[in-house]
Structure to design on (358 residues):
């Protein structure tokens, strides 16, 4: 009898190419439904909030396991799980007990629109969303150029907006609210089925019950380690799968040319896995741990990139054919350098933190 875990793997693997290429009729909603029914979306969430009361490491590993089969599914899993984390940590009880269960059951998709926020914190660009508050409502205006997991007409997106007084808010915005416009899906190299698009906020008005936090800087500082650790699952999944594929492709003809690089990749993966396990158990993140986490996220994504290229070399010309799993992983892994925070942004942040520590 095939186990539930193996059944999920086979289902995700079967659909990976279709989702990566955005084939009509194959929707990421099916992946979310599969994950929700198997209880994967509640991994690492406290039991009193509908979770399995597991560890953060268990959630990272779940994302990794999915990403081994299909990075598109792994990525929307990460989006959904991070949105769940926002609601689980919000002081807003209405969101926790009315919207959070819907996200855990994949009744709607959860998106995190923080692409602009990271760039703003690094001084690369200005905040793109503005907010105004009155006693009963918050009004939002502006646009976001890159947001994923935006299931058409059935999503809630977490955004950061700044008021004229300098106050920063995190607001959950439902897709059907008046004034919110979703663009067409962006045409991407891979992960085409990840519902990635633009959002325009034309005087969007919501009641205060949709506010996740009224102090975005403090909230994001608290949540960011979890945000980054969960992202590590994406790099882990791709690296593990490619290293396994390369190992299976080693033979008497190519062993001498590949074995040392494969050993190095395997050794590096083991070291980074140990760091993931250690940091996932951390109760607080001081400056040294924050830097270690940034370096870990950077190293894992670079390992994933290197591992897929090594896999291509090991498998040869047949791996370059578009239907092959290797060719799909080449397109998938090309997404990791631009995923917020991008590898360039991480490098800049590490450089800035090094200056302040001198």
């Amino acid at each position: 009898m095939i186990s539930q875990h193996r059944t999920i793997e086979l289902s995700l693997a079967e659909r990976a190419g279709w989702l990566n290429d955005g084939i009509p009729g194959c929707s990421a909603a099916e992946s979310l439904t599969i994950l929700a029914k198997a209880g994967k979306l509640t991994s690492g969430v406290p039991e009193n909030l509908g979770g399995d009361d597991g560890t953060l490491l268990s959630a990272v590993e779940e994302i990794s396991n999915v990403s081994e089969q299909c990075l598109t599914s792994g990525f929307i899993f990460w989006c959904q799980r991070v949105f769940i984390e926002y609601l689980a940590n919000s002081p807003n009880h209405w969101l926790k007990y009315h919207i959070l269960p819907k996200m855990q059951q994949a009744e709607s998709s959860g998106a995190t629109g923080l692409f602009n926020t990271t760039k703003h914190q690094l001084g690369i660009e200005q905040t793109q969303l503005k907010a105004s508050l009155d006693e009963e409502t918050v009004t939002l205006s502006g646009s976001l150029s890159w947001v994923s997991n935006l299931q058409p007409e059935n999503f809630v997106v977490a955004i950061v907006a700044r008021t004229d007084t300098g106050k920063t808010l995190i607001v959950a915005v439902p897709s059907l609210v008046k004034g919110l416009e979703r663009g067409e899906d962006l045409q991407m190299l891979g992960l085409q089925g990840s519902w990635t698009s633009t959002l325009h906020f034309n005087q969007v008005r919501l009641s205060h019950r949709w506010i996740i936090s009224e102090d975005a800087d403090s909230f994001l500082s608290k949540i960011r380690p979890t945000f980054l650790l969960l992202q590590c699952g994406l790099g882990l999944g791709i690296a593990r799968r490619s290293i396994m594929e390369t190992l299976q492709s080693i033979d008497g003809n190519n062993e001498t040319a590949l074995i040392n690089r494969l050993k190095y990749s395997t050794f590096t993966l083991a070291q980074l896995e140990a760091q993931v396990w250690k940091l996932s158990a951390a109760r607080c993140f001081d400056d040294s741990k924050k830097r270690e986490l940034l370096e870990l996220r950077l190293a894992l994504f670079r390992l994933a990139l290197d591992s897929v290229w090594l896999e291509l070399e090991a498998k040869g010309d047949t791996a370059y054919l578009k239907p092959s799993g290797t060719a799909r992983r080449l397109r998938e892994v090309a997404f990791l350098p631009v995923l917020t925070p991008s590898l360039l942004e991480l490098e800049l942040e590490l450089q800035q933190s090094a200056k302040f520590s001198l």
